[in-house]
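seq as requested:
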Amino acid sequence: MTKSKMNPKVDEFLCKAKKWQEEYELLRNIVLDCELTEEFKWMHPCYTFEEKNIVLIHGFKEYCALLFHKGSLLKDAQGILIQQTENVQAARQIRFTNVQEIVAMETTLKAYIHEAIEVEKAGLEVNFKKHEEYIIPEELQNKFDEIPALKTAFAALTPGRQRAYILHFTTPKQSKTRVSRVEKCMPQILNGKGLND
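struct tokens:
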């Protein structure tokens, strides 16, 4: 493997990693074997093909992972791809908790990376759910009718922020819980802020 392919920012990231250092090194070598360009984006090692993001290495408390940017388009023959949360539409993870797991899966990982490159070469795109496909819950609609300023403020939010609120409001099974969530978030919406701002 030529050193020129290695990005100094990733070297720095690996040196500073308090957890998953060995796992990161191993994942990096596997990914670089697949002829991808090593970059550093979103504070993580990110690997691209013709400037398109293919896979990212990241870590959490319980696991480290390879994140495939268009993972939902992969066939996932092994059934190992994980959707991080139900709101994530495109990306999928393969998670690891130790070096042995990565070593055992090296061939599979390379197959998945090559498939992800093929997805990019073919120009495939993830069909994101359109914003219109999210239905305004009744509890929110009632508040809109009561407080027109709330409806105006909600309409001014970005589609992503609107979607996050709608998902937050529609998750509870009980209407009273949905009402209390709407009421709790009203000041934020009126201030033009998203759910997580």
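The CA atoms of residues 167 and 174 lie 14 Å apart.
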